[in-house]
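Model: Ready when you are.
Researcher: Fold this.
Model:
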Amino acid sequence: MSNFTDLKPKYTADPPETITRDMLAAIPYGFRSERDILITIRQPEYTSVCPMTGLPDVGCIVIAYRPDETIIELKSLKYYLLQFRNVGIFYEHVVNHILDDLVAVLQPKWMEVTGEFTPRGGITSTVTVQYERTV
């Protein structure tokens, strides 16, 4: 008979390096010369894997940004975020990874990525990271 402390899922998580930004597609923002806008995107079905336990991490990713020349094509963003599904990555690294990739592709004026993660062991976590272009 097993000791409960020895129980662990038989699961191997993919490393964060498997996530690629090359599927993110930028499209022109047609009103760039007329006005700034704030775009907010919510992905309420985000999943990844805890790198310590192999247990699933679930949450909502919120991306808010002020575009410059381009905006994100939403289907490409959906497929990009699906890459995290089997990746072992900490919450704090998730939002930084997403921010770095989106900033590299879109070069926005300002961007904020927030991860609102569901409770685990009675603890909820919300992690936010920002980018602001300097002149």
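Researcher: Now this one.
Model:
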Amino acid sequence: MAAVNIRDSGRNTARTVDVRDIADRVEETNPGQQVIEADVTVTTATIAVTDDTNTDVSFVQPAGTIIRNLIAIPAGNIVTGGSSGNDVDFSLGTAAGGGQIIATEAILDDGGSAVTWAAKTPLYLIKDSHGHAANQFVSTSVTAGVVGGPATSEAIVIASTLYSAAARTLHARLTPIGADLATAATTVKYIVQFEQLD
């Protein structure tokens, strides 16, 4: 597909004709296929350093969509305590604190050496509607990680359907366990992308 030149309308918005051109080309290239329907962005309060303190956010999934991507990005560094079991856990549920979609898993898995999630490093907790194996956030020649991702993490297993016929509220939770974090005075932004199926 040829590139589309998105020009400014003069009001700091894209020209309507350019936006229509993109839509037409998507339909020509992928007839009948839906594109990402909605993005939702939500930012946590400052992450607690204190052991076993939850930081929760919620967002609404539109009706007739599937969760395509769930991306988490910290504003500053998050560093575990440095002893085995000093983890940062993540869960995603349809109830506050629940793990109906992703049960509690360590996205920073401290096995006896401090683990760092560097500032501005996006972690795809869900990517293309899939979970992933353990240690997939680290950037090496054989993983799809990103520079600054935690070196060790548990597998992300999708426990139930990412699709919902009706709009529903989803709840994400981060929790340091085992000990206080070494560093955590930061917020985390979640970007959730939904694909329309109905």
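Researcher: Key takeaway?
Model: The CA atoms of residues 11 and 17 lie 15 Å apart.
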